[in-house]
From TrEMBL:
It comes from Gordonia westfalica. NCBIfam families: maleylpyruvate isomerase family mycothiol-dependent enzyme. Signal peptide: none annotated. Residues 12-92 form the Mycothiol-dependent maleylpyruvate isomerase metal-binding domain. It holds the Pfam family MDMPI_N. This is Maleylpyruvate isomerase family mycothiol-dependent enzyme. The keyword Manganese does not apply. Gene3D superfamilies: dinb family like domain (1.20.120.450).
Length: 207
């Protein structure tokens, strides 16, 4: 996926997520998200923090002993941004091509797609993903190590999307829509919850 298309998807996700956040009740916002220890409100606020620069990140990293998952969670919980303010911040980020320090431009795409599910799945809201964007995000997660380690956690499996041209890994074939594969690679659902194919390793490309 080229850079312009990627950022177009990020902008669309941010606009849609802003509207979603504004629509949620206090009860919805207090609901536990798919991220352990995070409420829906915490995830909403975290989505606005991708513009933090090194001057903000380094002191927090030192404070939490470079335990980045803990740092990110605590930054979201401590942030006093209200949900309406979070929605406005997301809209203000449209058009920006900044991404979190130490990451590449695919990080905001991964964040918007996965965290959108972290918010909506516990609330019983179906939030479709653009399949090309989901495939790009899934490939990025598969290729990286920290923090997901998707390749390590899914050794011996070959994942094939049923709704877009995407296949990675080798071994027993697991076929599912790309949204489910992305959720698996992002640690939201185990591979065992997906449906294995009856066939052997297919001829699709490997990642």
């Amino acid at each position: 996926m080229d850079s312009d298309t990627l950022w177009k998807h990020v902008d669309e996700q941010r606009i849609d997520l802003a509207a979603l956040i504004e629509s949620l009740s206090d009860e919805h916002l207090a609901t536990p998200s798919l991220c352990a220890g995070w409420t829906v409100r915490d995830v909403a606020v975290h989505l606005t923090q991708s513009h933090a620069d090194a001057r903000q990140v380094f002191p927090e990293a030192i404070r939490y002993g470079f335990r980045f998952n803990t740092m990110i969670r605590e930054m979201a919980i401590r942030d006093r941004t209200t949900p309406p303010e979070a929605a406005e911040k997301l809209r203000a980020m449209v058009g920006s091509r900044r991404h979190p320090f130490g990451t590449n431009e695919r990080a905001p795409l991964i964040d918007s797609l996965l965290h959108g599910q972290d918010i909506t799945v516990p609330l019983g809201i179906d939030r479709p993903m653009p399949v090309d964007a989901a495939a790009a995000a899934a490939q990025e997660i598969w290729d990286m190590t920290f923090p997901f380690f998707a390749r390590r956690h899914n050794r011996g499996l070959r994942f094939v999307a049923t709704d877009v041209d995407f296949a990675v890994g080798s071994g027993r074939v697991v076929e599912a829509p790309i949204r489910e594969l992305l959720m698996c690679f992002g640690g939201r659902v185990p591979a065992s919850s997906l449906h294995p194919s009856d066939g052997s390793d297919s001829g699709s490309r490997a990642g």
